[in-house]
Amino acid sequence: MAFLQQKFLFSVLVLILCFAIEVSSHRRVYKPPSATPLTSSFPRVPIDRGFSKFFGAPNIQYLSNGSMATLALDKNSGSGLVSQGRYYYGFFSAAIKLPAGLSSGVVVAFYLSNADKFPHNHDEIDIELLGHDKRNDWVIQTNVYANGSVSTGREEKFYLWFDPTKQHHYYSILWNSYHTVFLVDNIPVREFIHSKSYSIYPSKPMSVYATIWDASDWATHGGKYPVNYKYAPFVVSFTEMELSGCEVSNPSSTCSKSSSSPSSLDPVNGPEFSKLSQQQIAAMDWARRKLMFYSYCNDKPRYKVMPPECH
Q: What average pLDDT score do residues 180-203 get?
């Protein structure tokens, strides 16, 4: 009888261990490949000089002489920063440490947009970090809008291979006339290539935003798990900001010309930024095979006719 009890207990422990491994496998199993450290190629900008408070000012704090900022979401408000400059192409990056604990419905975003200037046909390039379900996991969603195409989402979602609440990790956007590349810790996870055959490529100067807000209605399984303010405030930390783009100071600036003749001031117009290296391609292939769990190009129930870039 004692032997049978020990065998039963051993089986239960094995099942618990297997479940724990399955729940956290996307963080613990995978070791990322090497990739070119683009975040080392551009200067960092003090947050209090490169950004202004966008909304929720009482929930924003500058730390370390302005090199770091914390943004909070509580039951009264979220909070956000906006770049003081507007950019036409560039490399934009932030080291972000996400809120720990139950975070369903919380969204931390680092993105480019010109909705303030073009409310009916704006462009947008999004990195959205979504507080997920009851396992307390965060996932990353990338998206691209152009010319007001907000009715056609181009989302892709990925698990992360690390715990984003333990320390800061890099989330970056490379945007030029050739492609838009989304990177996590310098590993490309998505490349959105510019083609003249369709008009969905962002083409107007944009500001850079860093925000935290309540997206209970959609962020977690279509709103299944709303924000639980019992665990508020939710605090996110931003540091090591990079804003290396062709800054537009007025409408006559050379930066605002068409992508067919980008300005010589564009810091990401060189041949080293026109396409991914073989190392970057291999790293992106790894990320997409191991970590991507949703792409709009595979969502046939959503799209009866697939968007042209999916072909």
A: 91
